[in-house]
Protein: HD-like signal output (HDOD) protein
Organism: Paracidovorax anthurii
Amino acid sequence: MPHLTAFFENVQLPTMPNVARELIATMHDDDIPFEKVRNAIARDPALTAKLIRLANSARFGLPRSVSSLDDAITMVGLNQVRTLALAACTVGLFKDAPGLDATAFWKESMATAGYAQWLARTLGTDLPQSWLAGFLVRLGEFIIAQKAPEQIPAIERLPHHAGGRWEREQALLGFTEAQVTAELARRWNFPEGIVRALDTAGDPLAATPFCRLGAILHVATLLAEIGLEEPMSAADTVRALPADLLSALQLDPAWVETHLPPVAGFVDVSMR
């Protein structure tokens, strides 16, 4: 995408800390290397403390409290701990940007991640990868705020409606924040599956071949936006989702309506 490449010219990209680069490198392995993941995290006491706090949140509902990194890995799972560590590292890279409500931004990121994981569980897709991609999908707006701050008021204008931000970004810039995030993820050496999912999230039905994770991210983003910005009944929420996309994912609207979890369950703890 030439215009997106040009957009990145003269942009000061945040540098991933060493621990994050090490963790991303392990995502390219067929099997998760336990010692590499554990040792990388253990070298960062602040990150370790944050992961223990996250593991003890209501989100995981563990039968006993977690008091160490090894406890967290045992009770939450190595893959999930790696995912949470990468999310925590990412949050630390981005400072508040004028025009963006940081609290609302990260809350929506958590909600999108939660809905992405819920959909992935339903569809038999990788859970930690789906959660992480959902958490990352909006990061591109921070780059937009740096490169084109004059566009942020128009992108963030009220009232919000589900999917409206993508529409405004596409009209103003020629691409979406998710595509900016995809380019970030590519430069950070995330696996191609995550990069492509982010790149197709804004318009998954246009992607050839169809990218299931990209479609999951699209639906998860809409669910998060509806839940946080324009709460409505489960029936109305499902009616607001693209029927053709639900069909492509083989999701029964009646099932989604019956089983749709409340957004509050995904935003019980801050990543900051």
